[in-house]
Amino acid sequence: MFENFTRIPEEEQRRILAACIEEFAQHGYAGASTNTIVKNAGIPKGTLFFYFGSKKGVYFYIIDRAIESYRKSFLQNAGELPAELFERLLYLGRERLRFAVREPVLYRLLFSAFINLPPEIQAEMQSRYAGYQDAGLQLIYKDLDRSRFREGVDVERAVAMVYLLMEGIYNSSLAELKRLSPEQSLVFIEGLTGEVQQYFEMIKRGVYRD
Question: What is the pLDDT of residues 37-95, one digit of tens each?
């Protein structure tokens, strides 16, 4: 579908993609300007649409690449997942924040895409990436130790509740994370993990056996 783009030299591809990623990461889909993209990429505007067809085509192309980059980063850096729910969620959260430190622009792009869905492409975003979101949930549930939950606890609902809490805490930390150096960021992540653990200890008393 993007053969015209993939045929050009790799250095030119990287320059164009960098301009696209930066603009969409900074301003989101609705606020991004294709005029700014082509100016920063050093190409005519018609060339951008020749490669991708439309602004939406550009956006989905770079979102696909960002997701693939995150997936590869996780596979390269992550080890065996803990079987216990709260340890697993902490582990996944820590890995995600470390990706944010390594690839801040890509992470900001993904955060903007999935948290602040543009209304004009919301339905297509949800349909296109439903499998990606389902895969994330399956990663949480796979080989999860359910033996510690109290009888009668709906495990799926409990997991969803804890996951949403963790998301809220981590997402609220992004502004602070962006201001820190890589070294400071790692210290900040460890401190944030400790904060999340405190919340988890309270929740455990409600959903786990004594």
Answer: 999 999 998 999 999 999 999 999 999 999 888 888 887 777 788 999 999 888 888 88
47-65 burial, b at 16+ Cβ within 10 Å, e below that, comes to bbeebbeebeebbbbbbee
DSSP state of 43: S
Which two tokens mark 102?
């390594």
Structure tokens at 180: 């820190």
CATH superfamily for 3-207 is Tetracycline Repressor, domain 2 (1.10.357.10)
Domain borders along the chain are 3-207
For residue range 125-173, list pLDDT tens digits in order.
Answer: 878 887 776 777 788 888 899 999 998 999 888 888 888 887 788 777 7
**Which two structure tokens, joined as six digits, stand for 56?**
């939406």
- Contact call for residues 111 and 174 (beta carbons, < 8 A): yes
- pTM value surpassing 0.90: no
- Start-to-end CA distance of the chain, whole Å, equals 56
Residue 129's nearest CA partner among 176, 180, 60 is 60
Phi, psi of 208 (to 5 degrees): -100, 160
Alpha helix segments (H runs only) across the chain: 3-6, 10-31, 34-41, 45-52, 55-77, 85-102, 104-115, 122-128, 130-141, 155-172, 174-178, 182-207
